[in-house]
Amino acid sequence: TLDKKDIHWYIRSLEEAIIKSLARLGVRGECKKGYTGVWIGEEKIASIGIGVKRWVTYHGLALNVTTDLSYFSLINSCGLQEKKVTSLTEVLSSKVKMDRVKTLFVNSFCEVFKRTPKLMTDFEKQ
Q: Does this UniProt record's set of keywords contain Transmembrane (predicted)?
């Protein structure tokens, strides 16, 4: 449940939601022991970085969908300079619609965290 005050559980659950989203696209993602995030083989496709203050989380995750991977050559992503990154576009050899991935992730997130999505009205967003 979300009442659980366990950061490691929360991170592992985010990884599970990403893996379920990838599976719905026919892609096998996995966790690697000793690392945070989701991998496809030896390449990282999703990173997670959260902050917590009074048990409220901020920041989140990054799933490389149509990401220009050339920028990763300029940084030491997650301190893993020797590891490669990938994207759904690379893995599937075709561009994936971001709206489709968002919907798949929301559904996977709700499944893992046992929640029902609710569409916010413009009034609620203010």
A: no
Round to whole Å and give the CA distance between 17 and 51: 19
**Nearest to residue 105, comparing CAs of 46, 53, 31?**
46
- Positions annotated as catalytic residues are 78
Encode the chain in three state secondary structure: CCCCCCHHHHHHHHHHHHHHHHHCCCCCCECCCCCCCEEECCEEEEEEEEEEECCEEEEEEEECCCCCHHHHHHCCHHHCCCCEECCHHHHHCCCCCHHHHHHHHHHHHHHHHCCCCCCCCHHHHC
Full-model pTM: 0.85
pLDDT grade for 120, boundaries at 50, 70 and 90: confident
Domains in the chain and their CATH numbers? 7-125 (3.30.930.10)
